[in-house]
Design goal:
By secondary structure, this protein is mostly beta strands. It contains 1 helix and 4 strands, in the order ββαββ. The chain has a domain at about 5-30. It has one helix at about 15-20, and strands spanning about 5-10, 10-15, 20-25, 30-35. The strands form 2 sheets. It has a two-stranded antiparallel ribbon. The chain has a two-stranded antiparallel sheet with strand order 3-4. InterPro entries: Peptidase_aspartic_dom_sf.
Length: about 50
């Protein structure tokens, strides 16, 4: 998995795969889950971007 970088006010924040991928379960039943979640905020408070 790639390193994900966010830039906020000219400062770069790196997230490494071990920081955003979570292992759920043990053994052959284990699964990897992304820590990123989509969020759609409707008006009047959104969209946020």
């Amino acid at each position: 998995m790639p390193t994900v970088s966010f830039t906020i006010v000219d400062k770069v924040f790196d997230l490494y795969p071990e920081e955003y991928i979570f292992k759920v379960g043990e053994g052959p039943q284990a699964q990897c889950v992304s820590g990123f979640t989509a969020l759609d905020v409707p008006p009047p408070r959104g969209p946020l971007w």
